[in-house]
Design brief:
single chain, disordered C terminus, mainly alpha
């Protein structure tokens, strides 16, 4: 992962990639978005990817969410969670939940535990409810409760105990 600001060349590369995310060609825009992920949780990157969660095409929205979840750490997850709550009645957000499940399965991180912790920290009943439903759904799909952790990190035979 690169760190923006390490030198003038990195800043120049970051600026070019940020510009590339405005490209009208979806392929070029996607390439720029993917490469932005190399900068990880840099606030400029997270901010631009957050903006792209409101893009005109669902492909761009899903790609932005995936990069935020996979490569931008907790700050990326928090942006995605805020968007999911803000647009909870938008049917297209199902694609984001699906992507979140894919990331949860593919990586050795526990997105749902982190999402739950974020909701608790915000004291957001709405977010807790949404995260809880997602966790229950993921537990059923995975059918592997022995691998699930409670948000506090302890194991529970029935998966998350919300």
């Amino acid at each position: 992962m690169r760190t923006a600001g390490a030198d003038a060349g990195e800043w120049s590369a970051l600026a070019a990639l940020l510009d590339g995310t405005h490209d009208s060609d979806p392929l070029m825009r996607g390439v720029a978005m993917e490469e932005l992920g190399d900068f990880g949780s840099d606030p400029l990157v997270v901010g631009r990817l957050a903006e792209l969660l409101d893009a005109d095409t669902i492909e761009t929205v899903v790609l932005a969410a995936e990069i935020l979840l996979r490569r931008c750490g907790v700050s990326g997850l928090e942006v995605v969670m805020d968007e999911l709550v803000r647009r909870k009645d938008d049917g297209q957000m199902d694609y984001i939940w699906e992507k979140m499940s894919e990331v949860q399965e593919a990586q050795s991180i526990d997105l749902y535990r982190d999402a739950y912790s974020y909701a608790v920290r915000l004291e957001s009943d709405e977010m807790l409810s949404i995260v809880g439903l997602s966790i229950e759904s993921w537990n059923r799909v995975q059918n592997r409760p022995e691998t699930m952790l409670r948000p506090d990190g302890t194991r529970h035979a029935d998966g998350y105990d919300l």
